[in-house]
Amino acid sequence: MNELAKFCKTLKKDFTPKIQDAARPVRCWSEKDVLNGTVVDAYVIIFRTRGCSWALKSGCSMCGYFNDSMWKKVSDDDLLKQFKTAMKQYSGEGFVKIFTSGSFLDDNEIKPKVRDEILGRLVETAEKVSVESRSEYITDERLSTIRDMFGSKTFEVGVGLETANDFIREHAINKGFTFSGYQNAAEMLKKYDAKLKTYVLVKPPFLTEKESIKDSVTTIEKIDSYTDTVSLNPTNVQRNTVVDYLWKRKQFRPAWLWSIVEILKQSKKLTDAHVKCDIAGGGSIRGAHNCRSCDRSFLDAITEFSLSQDTKVFDDLDCTCRETWLDQLDIENLSFGSLVDFSGRFP
Ligand code: SF4
Ligand SMILES: [Zn+2]
């Protein structure tokens, strides 16, 4: 275990999971997304599970999803009760997205028979179902069962590659798998005619803003032939994580929205994949932000781009904080990773 992995583990040592109802999902709601080129309503379910197996070992440096997990076994019965509760609000949306704050294809988190029951029920009405998984759980066995169930309907798996750079993934993120592991998973998904959505992290800890823009753009270029969708995922500061530790010491600033727009603009020249960006905590000091006064217009444009793929939505964005962002790109290397939040907001 390297130093970063040890630190990720240490930060969870004194963490006490909240008392939560194992029979209720974390949240469910309906939101806009794209299905076969058309904007539709998509239904989202977040299951409350035991938690990500990797997080239980050490976990990724920016991930605080474990804060929502049970950290103890959740019975099959309770998972099915969560599903039943979620389905009460389901109004037949053609696109359903499932999150577990871990891996839906990990048998230790969701047993195959529970997984099959959930997917079997959803595929009756939905055209497309999307789940998330680490690459090591994307196997022949799991995908062949799902393919039989889905027939001509679409099954999508979101994989948090974060970066195509193995050094950054190991030493800044502690992701625990390699680019070749991702490539194998991508081939496997192709074999079973399933779609791949790749999460790309914007602003991992220990990278400057400029390095992060470059890393995301290079990553999008390198995964072009593997992925159907690219989902940019700007780091937000979640509790009990390495990022939180650094942020409290003014050694981490979430990405500027200017940087995200820059990456999105460049991405369209590099890939035919659908490129999107959901910004958790956008506009807050713990999420990607600019100067406050222009945050809303940037977030709206990014949401619009994620649906339309039209970079013209960024044409009218402007603000005096652009100069500050450009200054930061220039001088950050001189500060050895320690810097104030130039937008004037502090932890
Ligand atoms: S980012 Fe994904 S793989 Fe990493 S700890 Fe969080 S849930 Fe697990
Ligand atoms: Zn601004």
What does this structure look like?
With 347 residues, the chain is α/β, with parallel strands linked by helices. The protein has one domain (3-335): Aldolase class I (TIM Barrel, Alpha-Beta Barrel). The protein has 12 helices and 8 strands. It has an 8-stranded mixed beta sheet with strand order 1-2-3-4-5-6-7-8. The model has no long low-confidence stretch (mean pLDDT 94). Zinc ion is lined by residues 290-291, 293-294, 319, 321.
Radius of gyration: 20 Å
Q: Compute the number of strand runs.
A: 8
Order of helices and strands: HEEHHEHEHEHHEHEHHEHH
Strand % is 15-25%
For the report, how would you describe the main beta sheet? 8 strands, mixed
Biggest sheet, spatial arrangement of strands:
1-2-3-4-5-6-7-8
What CATH architecture do you see? Alpha-Beta Barrel
User: What is the helix fraction of residues, given as a range?
Assistant: 25-40%
* CATH H-tier superfamily: Aldolase class I
- Provide the residue-averaged pLDDT: 94
How far apart the termini lie comes to 31 Å
Shape: globular
Detail the poorly predicted runs.
none
Counting structural domains, the number is: 1
> Which kinds of small molecule does this entry bind, naming each only once?
iron/sulfur cluster, zinc ion
What's the CATH class, please? Alpha Beta
CATH topology heading:
TIM Barrel
Number of helices: 12
Helix vs. strand class: alpha/beta
Quick summary:
This protein is of the alpha/beta class and 347 residues long.
